[in-house]
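Lecture 7 notes: from sequence to structure.

We start with a single chain of 127 residues. Read the sequence below before looking at the structure.
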Amino acid sequence: QVQLVESGGGLVQAGGSLRLSCAASGRTFSRYNMGWFRQAPGKEREVVACMHWNSVSRYYADSVKGRFTISRDNAKNTVYLQMSSLKPEDTAVYYCASDQQELRVALQRDYREYDVWGQGTQVTVSS
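Now the structure, written as tokens:
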């Protein structure tokens, strides 16, 4: 059974930092692009960042570019999201997800291209 488990969310003041982790099991992690998405109340799920299976490329949403960093450790089957200079508008439930296609060349921004999701972790940024 494929499983993703996120950790690291919490409450932080504006300008602060958090690091999210997502541990994968049940799938050859190193063969799949991974993504971080978020969903705020009343809003659609949106891509935050995604990363190629062999780390050759990354994508960031404009809203987080320069503040967030996605990374992965294939030996630990884990993907990370380092978030800095957090803003109240970053408040959301954050999800990690695995691309449904292994060894895909292009990074996918559409959440419908991801077939395995973590349970989500709440990030709340106070002003």
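Residues 9 and 108 are 24 Å apart (CA to CA). Keep this in mind for problem set 3.
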